[in-house]
Amino acid sequence: METLPNTFIIGAPRSGTTSLHNYLGQHPDVFMSRLKEPRYFAYRGEEVEYQGPADPVTFNQSTVTERDEYVGLFRDAGGEAVVGETSPIYMYRADVAAANIQQTVEDPRFIAILRNPVDRAYSDFLNMVRLGREPILDFETALDREDKRKEKNWSPFYYYAEKGMYARKLERYYDAFGRSKIKVFLFRELARDGKEVMGQIMDFLDLETKRIDLRKKHNRSQFPRVNLIHKIASYPSVKSARGIFRGPVWRFIDWLRKKNLTEETPEMRVSTRVSLENKFRPEIKRLQSIVGKSLDHWTAPTG
């Protein structure tokens, strides 16, 4: 008999989804997919052929589009009450993902964790730099090129600003599944009191309260010390790993790329923050009315 997930962490990216995935997976009555982001319900039956710099060997290859492969991710589940997966793209592609889940899964539940969209966008950019997928090391330039990247069919990996439009995406899930099936948290809540957040999640999923180890932090931002080393060691040689870059040469280049990273990341320019705050302000007001949580700390003017 096939096992399909009944619980989905749907986003937003760079808001603590990896931490939630790993924390929840510690519970003895929970099975979380070993592949953290299968993205199946966002791309079911589609040909995923994005053309961003790293897309062919990252996003395209790791996206599961066939049912048999997706079901195989949960083959080792042993009767756990909660079977889950985490795909932040389900927030961005809400229309497609929600419809596919509605057609396939009986009585699904959803967890969303949201971060100030300005901070989320910058953290997303820094993460893409850390992974060697972002060829531009200037956030403002990357933002300016977002529309052109869409025109060139780059994946949503590179849509730093647009992925912060949470309200209209969450509305799609509320319309399809109802409020009782969706639990929304803020990134700040997880950072300040992870124990309380996990307790609420266990209540939401009707799980017995268990002690969860919250000490490990996941996917910290990093930035290159030397830009030239990053450019040489990242795109395209490390990610494509073809020709002379296979084997020991690839491992050395990847080692060099990682050694060149530091957790001392540059600050976002004040002018950029103000511009993004203005861009997101109407969306944040709309979101606040939807989720019933105060988001005043997201809209406070920059001093």
Question: What distinguishing features does this structure have?
Answer:
303 residues; 7 strands; alpha/beta; 17 helices; five-stranded parallel beta sheet
Q: Structural class of the helices, strands and pairings?
A: alpha/beta
What is the assembly state of the chains in this entry? single chain
Question: Order of strands in the sheet with the most strands?
Answer: 2-3-1-4-5
Question: How far apart lie the N and C ends?
Answer: 58 Å
Helix content: 40-55%
Largest sheet: 5 strands, parallel
Structure write-up:
The chain has 17 helices and seven strands. It is α/β, with parallel strands linked by helices and 303 residues long. The protein has a five-stranded parallel sheet with strand order 2-3-1-4-5, with helices on both faces.
Question: Summarize this, please?
Answer:
By secondary structure, the protein is an alpha/beta fold.
Outline the secondary-structure elements.
Elements: E1 7-11, H1 17-24, E2 30-32, H2 40-43, H3 59-62, H4 67-72, E3 82-86, H5 89-92, H6 94-104, E4 109-114, H7 117-130, H8 139-144, H9 146-151, H10 166-177, E5 182-186, H11 187-192, H12 194-204, E6 223-224, H13 227-233, H14 237-240, H15 247-259, E7 261-262, H16 270-291, H17 296-299
Parallel strand pairs: 1-3, 1-4, 2-3, 4-5
Antiparallel strand pairs: 6-7
